[in-house]
Write a structure and sequence with these properties.
By secondary structure, this protein is mostly helical. The protein has one domain: Arp2/3 complex 21 kDa subunit ARPC3, CATH 1.10.1760. It has seven helices and no strands.
Amino acid sequence: MLEKGTKVIARTAILLALTAAIQIAGRYFTSFLGPMNMFIVGTLVNACLLISVEYAGIKGASVIAFVTPFTAVLTGAPVPIPFLPFIGIGNFILVLVFYLLKRRIYGIGVGAILKFSFLFASVAIFLKMTSLPAKLVGALYFAFSWPQIVTALLGGVVYLAVTRVLKVKSIDE
């Protein structure tokens, strides 16, 4: 039997690899999916974040929350590097609220609202402080507006479906 610390590390590594694989696959399907790519990849990444709370605990989920923005850029996501920590914080807000509210539907809803609110406010402030091309400004405003709440909520739906199917015990059990 693995010790809890070893389980956390192993499950964190597996879930981080899965999340990165989703991001990489999303970049390959961009031409096929077009604008829908953000919704599919975002939903699956948010699902992985929530699943990681269940199966890797808050520590493992926190690592994944902060690493995934950087893996997204490595796969070609058009996000300014100075904005990546804000995305990590937004992800962390989702996993922390979900964890604190005992992984319930309320945790998904409140976490999604708070993540969206933080990212929308952050991108507005960030864009006022920088001078980026107008096309990128518009894309960032859109990407960090309502799609954030939609993908977080849909990620919650995927989380609920996956955890009902999987018979793996929670990291807390």
